[in-house]
Amino acid sequence: MTKNYPSNLTWKQWELIAELLPEAKPAGRPRTTTCMYPVVNAILYLLCQGCTWRALPGDLPPWSTVYGYFRRWRKDRTWLQVHDKLYQWVRVAASREPSP
Questions:
Q1: Closest CA to 51 of 67, 73, 37
Q2: Rounded distance between C-alpha atoms, residue 56 and residue 59, angstroms
Q3: 29: burial class by Cβ within 10 Å (0-12, 13-18, 19+)?
Q4: How big is the chain by its Cα radius of gyration, in Å?
Q5: Does residue 51 surpass a pLDDT of 90?
Q6: What pLDDT score does 83 carry?
Q7: Res 2: pLDDT
Q8: Predicted TM-score of the model (pTM)
């Protein structure tokens, strides 16, 4: 990534959610060239800008790669787990119980 978009995660934010993302699939091609930080930032860019998958800027990973991860993480409920963990962290930071 060459540009810094307003929707990009900071490194501190990335460190919070990086451990929540699943490891590479055990079968198939190894994940060597795809760093997850730009993929997550591309997904956030798309959600914030409301563009189509194919309209992602050229300095982000290919739209098909980004869509593939988005779809896989939606199906295996990774996004729900990330949401729930962030929700709990925000509540604890506000001196509340993790869950109401």
A1: 67
A2: 8
A3: exposed
A4: 15
A5: yes
A6: 93
A7: 66
A8: 0.84
